[in-house]
Amino acid sequence: MKVTFPQMGTMEIAVKTLLEELGLEVIPPPKITQKTLDLGVKHSPEFACLPLKINIGNYIEALENGADTIIMGGGVGPCRFGYYGEVERKILEDLGYDFKMIIVEPIQNDWWGFYKKLKLLLTNISWFNLKQAWQRAWAKGTAVDNLAKTVNQIRAYAQDRKLAQEMYEQALTEIDAAKRIIEIEKLEQSYQTELKQLPQRQNFSPLKVGIVGEIYVVLEPAVNFAIEKKLGERGIVVDRSLTLTQWVKEHLYLGHFKDETKHEEIKEAARPYLQHMVGGHGLETIGETFLYAQDNYDGVIHLSPFTCMPEIIAKSILPRVSQDLDLPVLSITVDEHTGEAGVITRLEAFIDLLKRNHQKGEVI
Amino acid sequence: MKKGFLGIDVGSVSTNIVVLGTDNKLIKKLYLRTNGQPIDAIQNGLKKIEENLEVEIMGVGTTGSARELAGVIVGADVVKNEITAHAVAGSHLVPGVKTILEIGGQDSKIIILRDGIVVDFAMNTVCAAGTGSFLDQQASRLELAIEKFGELALESDNPVRIAGRCSVFAESDMIHKQQLGHSLEDIIAGLSQALVRNYLNNVGQGKEILEPIIFQGGVAANQGIKAAFEGELDTEVIVPKYYNVMGAFGSALLAKEAVQENDESNFNGFNVSDFDYTASSFECQQCPNHCEIINIHQEGKLVARWGFKCSKGENNQVQSSGK
Lengths: 364, 323
Fold this sequence. Notes:
The complex is a heterodimer.
Chain A: E1 2-4, H1 11-21, E2 25-26, H2 34-43, H3 50-64, E3 69-73, H4 81-94, E4 100-104, H5 111-121, H6 127-154, H7 161-177, H8 181-196, E5 207-213, H9 215-219, H10 227-233, E6 236-240, H11 244-251, H12 261-270, H13 282-294, E7 299-305, H14 309-325, E8 329-334, H15 341-363
Parallel strand pairs in A: 1-2, 1-3, 3-4, 5-6, 5-7, 7-8
Helix pairs in contact in A: 1-6, 2-3, 3-4, 6-7, 6-8, 7-8, 12-13, 13-14
Chain B: E1 2-10, E2 14-21, E3 26-33, H1 38-50, E4 55-63, H2 67-74, E5 78-79, H3 82-93, E6 99-103, E7 108-114, E8 117-123, H4 132-141, H5 146-154, H6 167-180, H7 184-202, E9 213-216, H8 223-233, E10 237-238, H9 246-262, E11 277-283, E12 292-298, E13 301-306
Parallel strand pairs in B: 1-4, 4-5, 6-9, 9-10
Antiparallel strand pairs in B: 1-2, 2-3, 6-7, 7-8, 11-12, 12-13
Protein name (chain B): CoA-substrate-specific enzyme activase
InterPro entries (chain B): ATPase_BadF (IPR002731), ATPase_NBD (IPR043129), CoA_E_activase_dom (IPR008275), Dehydratase_Activator_Redct (IPR051805)
Pfam families (chain B): BcrAD_BadFG
């Protein structure tokens, strides 16, 4: 059995470790490229959102490389994602591929079901092995998320912004290759130090921008035009509201391991505008925007895939949030267009707007 | 000799050049069709604007979708996106303006200003319905001069309802109505209203549109669209005097600002129109992204290149063969 899974940002690093530690042979899809997109667009329903199309492209490329089992997440909310696994299975079957698809449903109330799904993958697995595999994967996921946070903070200050990015990418490669937890932790520490010791610009007070929106397009640089890097290279300090490990803490952990403090805070922040979940990350988009305003961020960029229902709801509420809090918000809809010029025009204009706002604030 | 600043806006449909005096007054302006050949348009434009021009150029700015290309050719002091350039020009020509409606060839945008500062903006993303190119297309289908389009709309007594959400459906709707026997004036007036509805629902969604409102960009020449905006917003809409060269105007103002900071201009001079510029492109084969790379040559020498997703191109690690 050769397993594969969809690409989403740096998720591959942790997921590959988890599966390999469980004794599986893993064939991750190649990095997302134009070819992935072309394959996905060709074989997916036109009205589906971009994540589904990229998933399809990922699977086809992985199956062509010899994978025979696909692991995909399920879902129960109003977002269409919950049904994507099934739709994707049908599409690939129609294309004539021979494979097995394992759709992991949310496990909040059903650890046992999750365990049984794992049994499908692994004939003989002990809780001990599972725990050990999880810990290693978790160490990688955490290290990668922490470094992403640091590089987003540091990049703007660095004299050589491109060097900061290269360092971060090098760290990802090395963490990906690391085996033991201690090794992973050491790597993270040394790269944290190196990043923070990069020569910095003096007397520089950069603008701060938060990124909110639908998780897939927020986490995957190949579809969001590498927005964190673009902003950083233009001298903006960036914070991304979503990370994979935070998401897992809220959605996959049980009992007293479950960490909902952040989520409660977000729900509370969104309450004046939206009182219940609308699927996907609609509620989080509103809440996080509110929190960024409280933390004195200069602006927020809202990313969503074209036709995404939860984010359409959020987008129609955002102008009010923006006005009440005097916080500029730029919504960017991501679809299959690959021309970067349009996005760069909007980003530059948004940065100009924030700069003039900033200057106005200083005068007063 | 008088001193002045040059602003160049190279858009999808038109290339506009403006010369401003040091007093920010317009000395000369030019509106040319880009015709899909931005390099030729820039060179022709420079040649035309130079004729009988008694001005020493102190600085030059470029904007529009080909701003990078134009910037390389002329040696720009500032290369700025068109949203900022339009806002700068709008608030200079109509002080206190609070809303700018701008419809160009391929894009439409709304800019919200308060106290002369841009506080919000939006630009069409996935749909070009209602932009200048669509109007151009319809005018040529009806064998009308685009200049007549707006006038004709004003003559309508009874505009018909046209679906404005998608240009493809708008067109088929127009054809249905025309085959039923509605008059041309009524159909064109209906189309103008549909485009305005689409613009306000799409680009203008959630924006606080306050007076004074200005309407600029090539489409602002269209009296029918202006009237439809006034009808829909129930207020006066101002079309500024230089409505079709606002991007270039703003760009010249920005050039003046930039030169004050830098002291010296990078302007390559008007003789760039005599150089031979060529663009070549190739598909990089180093990874499956297959980036489309553009090389700009001046007299055969590579002067600029873009289109890479990674940093290989900037370091010139990739040869044109893609190997």
